[in-house]
């Protein structure tokens, strides 16, 4: 069964510190992995998808198939990064997203 | 371009009633998916429609149903409401295999 695990419910860092939000998945096949973000009072929006290999707002994520992980990283956190972050996967040919439970990131001044 | 819109934004119903939620996708998007978001279970997939056909269904009871119209607008219906159906219901639209764009959600409260 497809499953996405985000082990940290809450994560708090200081501005300028590195941040890593963990995501592990279980899926038999080649999934497509995403990070979605939800800022306060805003709708859920896509941050990254692994196939694009882009860096968005300073965030990067590398798919590690050996460890079945897709951790989200940023070298220097900013206060505006405070939000709820969701890792998700989708199986090929489908639009069905399987989400993790989310990590609430707080960046303190 | 206009984003995904959902109506109504808030709804209060009593147990046993039924409810219909509506979703208007971004123009040109033919795929619409629905998700239920609760504090306990997080975001869970309900169903996905493409060109008026249900392509995927999540693990929800038959009380949850949906449909998609020829203009890609979609509705979901929940019959015989239970207290546990209280949730934020999100709709997302996309082109096939492209980024899904989410609506603001409909907050359903069942009393």
User: How much strand of chain A?
Assistant: 35-45%
Largest sheet entry of chain A: 6 strands, mixed
Alpha carbon gyration radius of chain B: 13 Å
Q: Give the strand content of chain B.
A: over 45%
Shape of chain A: globular
The number of helices of chain B is 0
Main structural class of chain A: mainly beta
Order of helices and strands of chain A: EEEEEEEEEEE
Number of distinct beta strands of chain A = 11
Question: Residue share in helices of chain A?
Answer: under 10%
Q: Averaged pLDDT of chain A, please? A: 92
| Class of secondary structure makeup of chain B | mainly beta
Q: Let me know the average pLDDT of chain B.
A: 95
Largest sheet composition of chain B: 7 strands, mixed
From the spread of the alpha carbons, the general shape of chain B counts as globular
Distance between the termini of chain B: 37 Å
Rg of chain A over CA atoms, rounded to whole Å, is: 13 Å
Counted by DSSP, the helix tally of chain A is 0
Low-confidence stretches of chain A: none
Explain the overall architecture.
The complex is a heterodimer of chains A (109) and B (111). Chain A has strands at residues 3-5, 10-14, 19-21, 24-26, 32-38, 45-49, 60-61, 72-74, 83-90, 97-99, 103-108. With 109 residues, chain A is an all-beta fold. In chain A, 36% of the residues are buried. The mean pLDDT of chain A is 92. With 111 residues, chain B is an all-beta fold. Chain B is 0% helix and 54% strand. Chain B has strands spanning 5-7, 10-13, 19-24, 31-38, 42-50, 53-57, 64-68, 74-78, 87-94, 101-102, 106-110. The radius of gyration of chain B is 13 Å and the shape is globular. Chain A binds chain B through residues 43-46, 49, 86, 88, 93-102, and chain B through 3, 31, 33, 35, 42-45, 48, 50, 55-56, 58, 90, 92, 94, 96-97, 99-105.
């Amino acid at each position: 069964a497809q499953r996405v695990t985000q082990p940290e419910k809450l994560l708090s860092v200081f501005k300028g510190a590195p941040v890593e939000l963990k995501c592990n998945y279980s899926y038999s096949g080649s999934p497509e992995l995403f990070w979605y973000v939800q800022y306060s009072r805003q709708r859920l929006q896509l941050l990254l998808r692994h196939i694009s290999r882009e860096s968005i707002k300073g965030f990067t994520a590398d798919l590690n198939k050996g460890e079945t992980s897709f951790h989200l990283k940023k070298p220097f956190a900013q206060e505006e990064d405070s939000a709820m972050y969701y890792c998700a996967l989708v199986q090929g040919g489908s639009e069905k997203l399987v989400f993790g439970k989310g990590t609430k990131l707080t960046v303190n001044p | 371009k206009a984003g995904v819109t959902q109506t109504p934004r808030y709804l209060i119903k009593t147990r046993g009633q039924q409810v219909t939620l509506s979703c208007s996708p971004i123009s040109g998007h033919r795929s619409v998916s629905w998700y239920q978001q609760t504090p306990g279970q997080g975001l869970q997939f309900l169903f996905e429609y493409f060109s008026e056909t249900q392509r995927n269904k999540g693990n929800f009871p038959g009380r949850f149903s949906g449909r998609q119209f020829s203009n890609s607008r979609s509705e979901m219906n929940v019959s015989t409401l239970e207290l546990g159906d209280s949730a934020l219901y999100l709709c997302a639209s996309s082109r096939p295999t492209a980024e899904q764009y989410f609506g603001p959600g409909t907050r359903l409260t069942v009393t």
